[in-house]
Amino acid sequence: MVERSEINMADVARRAGVSVATVSRAMRGLPGVGEATRARILEIADELAYVISPEASRLSGGQTGRVGVVVPATEKWFYGEMLAAIERRLREADLDVLLYQVSDAEVRGRFFRDLPTRRKVDGVVLIALPLPQHEVDRLDLLGVEVVVAGGRIKDFAHVEVDDRAIAATAVEHLVGLGHRRIAMIRATIYGDEHWAPDSQRLEGYLQGLADAGIPAREEYVVSVPFTPLDGATGAEELLALAEPPTAILCFSDEIAFGALQGARRSGHRVPEDVSIVGIDDHPLAAVMGLTTVRQDVAAQGEMAAEMILRRLAHLPVKDVVEPHELVIRASTAAPPT
Amino acid sequence: MVERSEINMADVARRAGVSVATVSRAMRGLPGVGEATRARILEIADELAYVISPEASRLSGGQTGRVGVVVPATEKWFYGEMLAAIERRLREADLDVLLYQVSDAEVRGRFFRDLPTRRKVDGVVLIALPLPQHEVDRLDLLGVEVVVAGGRIKDFAHVEVDDRAIAATAVEHLVGLGHRRIAMIRATIYGDEHWAPDSQRLEGYLQGLADAGIPAREEYVVSVPFTPLDGATGAEELLALAEPPTAILCFSDEIAFGALQGARRSGHRVPEDVSIVGIDDHPLAAVMGLTTVRQDVAAQGEMAAEMILRRLAHLPVKDVVEPHELVIRASTAAPPT
């Protein structure tokens, strides 16, 4: 038996009774090898569990066969869902995903200083990352194709949702139910930074109020770190105001799950005393009866993967805005009279 | 200005007024280069955003500088959290993570048939993956170091929790509150497969009942797909029995979040009418007031990364069982009288 670590193309060629060049062509799917021969070679290679060395097969073409995915935190549902969809689509195209997690501002700073993806990947997908300008400027030095998912950075190809319209839709729903005292819980990351989508949702919220002729109130907008527990604190803070809101729009469903509990903890019934709306349609939203504005995160991930594949094939790409949809459940109703 | 894609070691050498060999030694941290020279070289390289080609620097040593992480689904909290911790630790050690998602039985089958990680990674971490025996057998052909996290496979190095003890601890808590009619909601993946931890939790549940002298009842164990919505259905099914349970142990917190809602939806108060216990201590568990048995998923991820690093350094590793802890919150109380 051949020791597995020593199996190479020559072993396959010997067994198949063909040249190493023929094995190489057969395994890379190149023309010039008959179908029967190709089938026999693949069968023998499979028997020997021989896998063509990616370095050997790609270095000459200057391609790594890998795409880097840069993401703040895989444990947050939005990022995990997006990453899952990107990986599935790239895997279908026989590309590997190299994962770069930039979980805090320091790691992010190191990433953009060192640009560790250079020469390791053919392209990079950046997922919903808040970036200061000096780090944005470094992106040009990556020297590979860049696609942005869940937001936009400079003029890189991107797929996103219309965050202003999403927030305005939620406010419109609440206004339609009769609410006038509508608050918003924003979310921060990396200490006190706001994602671009968060700022755009704030604009949409303010626009929604303006459209309904409702003056904005400064005390009705609070910012909390992006965790459910902080969402609960945010809701408690709002509901403790002298004139508390009758409805709360939350940056995301995970913040809203916290807000639901914060409201209940402080003695408020949902939706009788206070209505709560999220954004996402997280897998728990349906079971929690949360009214939300749904965005299809997996579709955005697939689209981002598709865009980087087209870029790598030197095909043109168009920026994409994925649709959203109001999903009315049990957490919103008319305000108390 | 030098075009960035053409920057190479020769450019750095020219600017620094040293030989290419000196640049190479300086950038790889090898001895034989004075500190001042080294600092100047690194500064110039940084200016030019030159990054040493990983292929060029590693191929000779036979190392890829990459670790493959194989995981069923990054969008599930447990896997996202584990992956986050593994990536952080490997990044510190200057290793890249190549992500392989095996989201269904077909993709998993393809993974174990093709073993795509061969020659692409120095080692593989498998996260909590249910595997049929013929796929387990293929693992030996990977030809690289293997570490298993969140379970065990064959005699590969592994880090896990004591799933039997976890379930028995939960049952003991419920028995201590006076419950005798205790049910369990199990979870499946890949259609109807059970993770090894799920089977061990069933054993722990049965052992906990036996220890308390409570006969097991077949109708008190249901299996549902691993989603909160299915957790809700599972709870409704149990609570619709002629003699419904007064307490339900759930495979995980995500199942328990569903069960909480399923109980409420079918007119049962938690904990007055029915107690519910999860396993994990998911970030939402505290805010939902869920009693659970906490496991430290990030610690398991860090440990798995540590183990693969030791393996790659040819150091011995010991299997690890991480501790667990009962966290009592508002979802459990004495049974109704």
UniProtKB/TrEMBL annotation, chains A, B:
Keywords tagged on the record: DNA-binding, Transcription, Transcription regulation
Keyword Transcription among UniProt keywords: yes
Domain HTH lacI-type: 7-61
The protein's name in its UniProt record: LacI family transcriptional regulator
Xref: PROSITE patterns: HTH_LACI_1, HTH_LACI_2
Pfam families in the record: LacI (PF00356), Peripla_BP_3 (PF13377)
Top-level taxon of the source organism: Bacteria
Xref: SMART domains: HTH_LACI
Organism: Nocardioides jejuensis
Record-linked InterPro entries: HTH_LacI, LacI/GalR-like_sensor, Lambda_DNA-bd_dom_sf, Peripla_BP_I
GO molecular function: DNA-binding transcription factor activity; transcription cis-regulatory region binding
